[in-house]
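Troubleshooting: if your tokenizer reports a length mismatch, compare your output against this known-good record of 483 residues.
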Amino acid sequence: MTIHSLVRLDGTGGAVPQSDLEQFKSDFHGRIIDPDDPEYDAARAVWNATIDRRPGVIARCSGPADVIRAVRFAGRHGILTAVRAGAHNIAGNAVCDGGLVIDLSAMRGIRVDPGQHTVRIEAGATLADVDHETQAFGLAVPLGINSTTGVAGLTLGGGFGWLTRSLGLTADNLISADVVTADGDYIHASDDEHTDLFWALRGGGGNFGIVTSFEFHLHPVGPAVLAGPIVHPLGNAHRVLTEYRDHTASAPDAMTAWVVLRKAPPLPFLEPSVHGQEVLILALCHAGAIEDAEVAARPFRAIGTPIADAVGPCPFAAFQQAFDPLLTPGARNYWKSHNLVELSDGVIDTLIRYTEMLPSDETEIFLGHLGGRANRVRPEATAYPHRDANFVINLHTRWRDPADDPRCIEWARSLFADLAPYATGGVYVNFMPNDETDPDRLRAAYGPHWNRLTRVKRRYDPDNFFRMNQNITPAAEEQEAAE
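Known-good structure output:
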């Protein structure tokens, strides 16, 4: 390993003594990957291809001890450090230019306790890893909608998906976490230990330390659920969205109905003539008994005359993977997002108008159906503040050619601006791109909890070592004293 210089926290380059590097490598049980390593380009790549950063060194950890060693090494030398888990983060904060990446992707152990309905998950695990283990017992953690998503980033930002309405956010189901702090200490956070940190981890992002493992509540789900897509032509979208709005208002918590507006992909149940045409997709998932699900799904399935209805009993783990082919790594992605309390006529009209001018075949607008149990949690109970959002809308612009960057990004920004009058002003932190650096927008992600989060940050990371994230700066000493 011949690394002459690593970028420091202040942005300058600095030489690290070769003897220190060699000692770090000797003590490290995982894999150290430098720019000369044949795996380097694969190791630095993240899901979003617009992110092209070149770390000085990547430390792929085998366990918590490696994480501790990497943090202490970086801390001693003041090295800019990023933390990689699932690397699905749209902003690309899992990598940094010139610094150190602490890579948790090899830490994917999962231990299910079916008797206690709990599971311990290491920080590199993906949703697919978790479902594989928990569904063997007919149990699940409420996670996301794409099986390649990392559990760590999802949880730290709040986390929502098919089970949110019935079981709460991913963060609401967190029991405890093992954390390596900026000092390299290894601590346990829960409702009984380091309670301020435990509160902050549930929605405050990766600002406070590196979580090496998470303990969650498990719930009976599946193995079979009623789920699947219903595809409508865009010409029917106004009627579909208007009736969808009415039905979601009275839907039971177990029923989740998301909307996707995009050009039809080559799904096997669609006629070839439909491929590439603008469509509206209702994606349904009911977390309960099939007979109850049939009743709850009936109003949604009765809307208009769909092109195709593929709703039916299926394995829950399979449905968690249903959208994976549309979300593969390697494409260029740019997201903008809003939280909504209601789906107003203005929102409906705006969504339809922009779907008629999608900038690429892979671009989609999705409307996540929230509410239910997640919104009955007190806003102050966790750092995730958006307990008033019944819908989250994500403008998921996706394309392949870098020459299309300006056109695709402008489409997303324009739609974002036109939707702003109907939105709450809040934003889901995991949907923020790397150019949303406006202080007011950042504070909107953390809402009324900002000041409390800065105080927790000061206690556990006073020098802002963990800054490759949607960053919360530590409270000033005088601010903390005044409060």
